Each structure stands twice: as structure tokens, then as C-alpha cells.
UniProtKB/TrEMBL annotation:
CDD domains: CuRO_1_LCC_plant (cd13849), CuRO_2_LCC_plant (cd13875), CuRO_3_LCC_plant (cd13897). It is found in: Secreted, Extracellular space, Apoplast. It comes from Carex littledalei. SUPFAM superfamilies: Cupredoxins. Binds 4 Cu cations per monomer. GO terms for molecular function: copper ion binding; hydroquinone:oxygen oxidoreductase activity. Lignin degradation and detoxification of lignin-derived products. Its cofactor is Cu cation. This is Laccase. The keyword Membrane does not apply.
Amino acid sequence: AEIQYQDFVVKEILVKRLCKTHRVITVNGQYPGPTLTATDGDTLVIRVTNLARYNITLHWHGILQIRNGWADGPDYITQCPIVPGATYVYKFTIINQEGTFWWHAHALWLRATVHGALIIYPKLGKPYPFDKPHREYPIILAGEWWNQDPNEVLRQATITGAAPNVSDAYTINGRHGDLFPCSNQGTSIFPVVSGETTLFRIINAAMNTELFVSIAGHLMTVVAADSAYTKPFTTTVILLGPGQTTDVLVTADQPAGRYYVAARAYASAQGVPFDNTTVTAILEYKFSSCTAIHGVQTMPPPLVPLLPAYNDTSTAAAFSAALRSPGPVNVPDPVNETLFFTVGLGLFGCPPGMICGGPNGNRFAASINNVSFVLPSTLSMLQAYYFNVPGVYTEDFPPEPPIIFDFTANNISLSLQQPVQGTKVYRLKYGSAVQIVFQGTNIVSGEEHPIHLHGYQFYVLATGFGNFNPDVDTKKFNMVDPPERNTVGVPVNGWAVIRFIADNPGVWLVHCHIDAHLMWGLAMAFIVENGEGDDQSLLPPPVDLPIC
Ligand code: C2O
């Protein structure tokens, strides 16, 4: 195992996109940020210096950070932010993890441009569970691109209580593709060779949008999701919620030429505005007769793939349902904790004297079990927990919603729409087997919610539409080969059931990876207590951990 040192300097640069020059916050002046690679067992030491004008933290999405929440990153959950001018060194070891991960800012909306791929290769001599591909490319889908500063979009939405402005375009590896103005030179090209196979490590780094992805003329074989290998299956379209990753193998088995890799929104909420643009990159056959004779420039224009309609919920659900672990796994059973979490939107009233931009003159809210999460501001929760500082959070997060009603009904009464605010945690004993039923609600509007659990991978036992019914739906649990993930899409007006063993002590955030929902409070946190021995206990904080 090696120690990998990296210097990350957070700074603003000028970037030209969509015919205009923008100021963009980046790591090391790169958008997207640098791709980190390491091998399972390596230790990463990443020195982050903040030269931008916003407080920042970085999160290593999918890395377990066993006993080491100090390196996890969400601001005010596991650390105070790195203030402008300051430095913090994230130090963590990869313990039995490999695959596609990513890193991103976890403060304000800095994640819109501060993100990058994190690829962990298997230990030396351990092959992939599929034929070695001839080449690998990361594909970062994102950056909804706003012509405005994304943090300004956030600020305006916070002030007015309205939905944030939708983005102006998406990007693939930082580029919009040649369907956009002034973007002809701005297309990501993935060179491939006839007959050879490429592994694409696809990351949805978008702020607020689930995305369908297809490649014209080519099938994709899904081999991993959220860094866990899957039973391979072949498809023409994949779906990724923000936070999710999917690895696919693509064989260049078509006539030599150029084929679009394209992504477009899956917008599950009814009547809510979204960015309906199509972002493209190009799969380009090399050494084809066409290239040799005419050169790449004169090759015929690329073929556009067929993408599902923006509201194609059945395609979205079918894709998620097709994911399986490669073979039988040990599903935690029986469970010690049976939690039922409603996830969805809500409303806050408008303070007197203010004009609010949310539905019917209210402000948007979001909640889990009717608690709208409020970030602490004086200290991080992990520091408060470790040092026994009172007043930062309360331990009364409810294990189920205060009232059971028809969560997916169309007209839910106003009295059920207003969540309470709080910084509430739920405490778990070390080693307990936990089941969570996430139940989507149709308060204000139903929408698919990609729910991310920090510090863990979990099994997704089942998903479905409507209200979860234990009598019927428990029978649908896949106890044999459920997929392992860190971010689960809770279907629009539906439910998802996950299980995990709480064996990583610390404070771990659970949240919707749609940042608009996170800002409205769709989050909660677990405290996982220490176990018996030292090797089951949270490590002490690093000396340079920022204080608030
Ligand atoms: Cu990828 Cu809490 O985040």
C-alpha cells in the first residue's frame, strides 16, 4: 500500500462556456477537478487550501471512512468549514473498497463546479470480475451549468423560498457538446478502437437532476453501481440520480464512425420546471478507414441516441430493479432497528412582511419524518459528540412519522404540509442491524429522491410505488442478491427498503442528494456509538481539524 499525496487549491478561475466568460470556483484551476486514482489499501493525504471567497469542505463520496468521520467532510456535520485562506489535510485509508467514487464540495452549492472522479483500483493481482477492458474513461455528468454563480442561485432561492433557477445546460467532463452555441470545440471525445471494449465509469455529479444516459448504436453492459459490482446486464439506457455512479462496458462493434454519448433529465416531479437540454460527448472510432482517408473533421456527423422521455418513470424503475449483486450476499437479518422515514417536500409559511416565492406565497421546505434538518452553525455535530459539547443537536429524531396517513395521495391537507425545524439525530448501538423504509410523499409534489447515507454501503432489498405495505411488500424483499449501494433512488410516490450493520462509529449524514431538497432540510443524522474495543471506536480528531 502506498501513501498518495495531493495538493488541492480551491480557487476561482475564468472559464468560457455558452459564449460567455464566467468566474468558476475550481480545484487547481480545473473544471471538473482532477481525477484521483489509488489502489485499495492506499492512504490518501489531500491538502486542501482555500483561496476562494466561500467557506468550503470536501467529501469523498462512497468512501466509508471507517472510525474516521473527521475526513468525511460535510460542513457542520463532521467538521467546521475551511475558511478562506485556511488549509485542512484530509487523510484517510481505503479499506477493502474498489471501484468508481467521486469527491465533491459539501458546503453551499460549491459542489456545482468543485467535484472530480476518485477511482480505486483493486489490490495488485486481483482482477476485475469481468474481462479486462482495453481502456477506461471516467464520465462526469454534471455540472448543471448556470450562467449565474451557483451560490448566487442558492442565495436567491434561500431568500425568496422559491425553487432555485433551473440550470442552462449540463456538461460531460466539463463540456456541453456541440448541440450548444459556441460549444463546437467543446465536446468531450472518447476514442475507441473497433472490436475493443471500454469501461466507462459514469458519475452523476449534477446538483438537482437525475439523468438518463445512452450511447447511439451501442449497448452498455452494467458491471457496477456505487462502487459495488453487479451481476452484468445489458441495456440501451441507464439512469443515475445525483450522487450515484454506474460502470458500464461498451464494445466498439458498430461500423467505424462517431456516435453521441448523450444524457438528458429524468424529471419525476409533475409540472415542475427543469433543464430539458441534451448534453453530448462523442464516442469516436480510431483507425477506421474513414478517419484514414478523410480525417476526423470530414467524418459524417455523429448519430444521436434515443433517450427516454423526461417523465418515463417505468424505464427509470426498470433500470433500478435490474440491479443485483453478482452472487448471494449476507443480508443483515433479523434486524434490531426498524425505521420508517418519510422523505419529501413541504412548506413553511411566509414570515410577516416578506414576499415569498414558493407555492401559494409560502416557502419550500423538505423533511424526513416531518423534521426539516437545520445545519448547526457553532460547531460540527461530530466535534460536539466527541467533545460532549451540549446544545449543538438533540437526540429526539423520530423513528417514524408523527402521523401515518396516505403519503402518496393527491390532495394532502395543509396541516400535514408544515414540518418542524431541528438538528435532530437518531442514536444507533454499535453493530445493530438497521432497516430503513424510505417512503416518498406527495406533499406539495412527489419526486424521486436519491437518498445518500454517509459512512456506509447498504443493501437495497426492494423498491415499489405507492404506500409501503408491510404485509405485502416484505414478501418482495430480495434476501439473496440485493444490490449494494450508497445512494438509493426512492421512486416518485413510492418506497425503498435498505439494510446495513451500524459498525462504523461516528456521526453520519443521511440526505437527499438533490441539493435543492437538501437546502430545504431533507436530511437527518445518525450517531453510531462506539463498540467494545479500541478498534470499534471513533479515532481522535486530527490536530488541524478546523474549528468554528
Ligand atoms: Cu455525495 Cu453528502 O454527499
